[in-house]
Design brief:
Elements lengths: L26 H15 L8 H25 L1 E4 L3 E7 L2 E6 L2 E4 L5 E7 L4 E10 L5 E12 L2 H6 L4 H18 L3 H5 L3 H16 L6 E12 L5 H70 L1 H17 L4 E5 L6 E5 H9 L4 H4 L3 E4 L10 E3 L2 H8 L1
Antiparallel strand pairs: 1-4, 2-3, 2-5, 6-7, 7-8, 9-10, 10-11, 11-12
Helix pairs in contact: 1-2, 4-6, 7-8
């Protein structure tokens, strides 16, 4: 039977609440009752009996789940691409983590990211005393990067500061063992290499986890009080180097030509020597062939040799001298002019002439007298 049927008023929840027929509750009692139930979920009062205990257990579970989720999400972290993370568990080194999304135990582990790929710059400068007791201001800068994250963090208190102090020490040591002229002019590269070597020697025992990539010698100058004098000295040294380079270039240009000329003269001398030797050997061979003939007929051979020699001599000239027998006259024939006139189509008798040389008339040692014509030449031949 339902509680709201007639005759069943004892089962009415509003009238029989708590075993008493009290009637419907007012609004304040209803709100208070709802508040007590929600308070029991979070461990509130004990009103409500077994129902209150059930709501309290559910609240604790919800709180625990929320706390676990919050703790889990709080443990996620990210290591950048150029970094490496050092893990500290309760303050003690526990390893390293690679770049990417990682998770840690919150409140128990701490992550220290270390940049492993970026090249860092560290300058150093100051006034320093050189070996020859001069004061010079030197500026130098090094480039370095981290290669061992654990040593970089734990070997010393501050690896960057330790490297800076080591650079100052190495720079002052090298400058103190070098002359000022070398630092300002030609010895800059040697000073740079020496500083690099000395710096690596200093930091090696400390295991800083760093590597020196490069050392740059930026500037070196004397104090302002003596700067002008040193500028003049540097200009003079630069002029000296320039003149030496120009002289070397001139020598490199002249020497090959001189050597070529010497070689050409040597080749010409050797060629002339070979020619003379061959001509002499040819003459010896020719006279050796003529010797038997000369021994057999000396006069005939001598005459033939004379005629052969005269033939060679007169073959190279266009003028002919004719000695007329029985007289003191010598006939000169200008054959070159005769040939020119014949080639021009003119008559020889009208254009050419003969000249008679009378040696006896040259009593004053002057040039001989020229006279005569073609008819006299013809009479002399007859």
């Amino acid at each position: 039977m339902a509680w709201n049927e007639p005759g069943n008023n004892e089962k009415d929840p509003w009238k029989n609440k708590g075993g008493k027929n009290q009637g419907p509750p007012d609004l304040d009692d209803l709100l208070k009752d709802i508040g007590n139930k929600f308070g029991g979920i979070f461990g509130g009062g004990k009103s409500g009996g077994g129902s209150g205990k059930s709501f309290s257990s559910i609240g604790i579970m919800v709180v625990l789940v929320v706390a676990i989720l919050a703790y889990a999400f709080a443990g996620f972290f990210t290591i950048k691409e150029a970094e490496k993370g050092i893990v500290l568990r309760f303050g003690q080194y526990a390893g390293t983590v690679e770049p990417g999304l990682r998770w840690k135990w919150t409140f128990a582990e701490r992550i220290i990211p270390v940049d492993m790929q970026t090249t860092r710059n560290l300058p150093s400068s100051g006034f320093m005393l050189t070996k020859d007791e001069n004061v010079v201001r030197v500026e130098m800068e090094i480039q370095y990067r981290v290669v061992d994250s654990r040593n970089y963090v734990f070997s010393v208190t501050n690896a960057d500061e330790s490297l800076s102090e080591s650079l100052d020490s190495a720079l002052r040591y090298v400058v103190g063992h070098a002359n000022m002229d070398d630092i300002l002019t030609s010895g800059r590269e040697a000073v740079r290499q020496a500083v690099w070597k000395e710096l690596e020697k200093i930091i090696e025992p400390y295991n800083l986890g760093l590597i020196v990539v490069d050392v740059n010698f930026k500037d070196a100058r004397p104090p302002n009080e003596v700067k002008d004098a040193f500028d003049d000295a540097i200009s003079a040294q630069e002029d000296e180097v320039r003149f030496l380079r120009e002289a070397e270039a001139y020598a490199r240009g002249i020497e090959p030509r001189a050597r070529g000329r010497v070689k050409r003269l040597e080749q010409e001398a050797l060629a002339y020597k070979s020619q003379i030797l061959l001509d002499a050997e040819g003459d010896v061979a020719r006279f050796n062939k003529l010797l038997p003939e000369y021994k057999a007929a000396p006069e005939v051979t001598r005459q033939r040799m004379y005629l052969t020699s005269m033939e060679k001599v007169y073959s190279n000239t266009s003028k002919v001298m004719v000695d007329v027998e029985g007289g003191n006259n010598m006939i000169y024939l200008p054959l070159d002019k005769i040939m020119q006139q014949q080639s021009g189509g003119q008559r020889v008798n009208e254009q050419s002439s003969t000249t008679t040389i009378n040696p006896s008339s040259n009593s004053n040692n002057t040039a001989p007298t020229l006279s005569g014509r073609n008819d006299r030449f013809n009479n002399g031949r007859d």
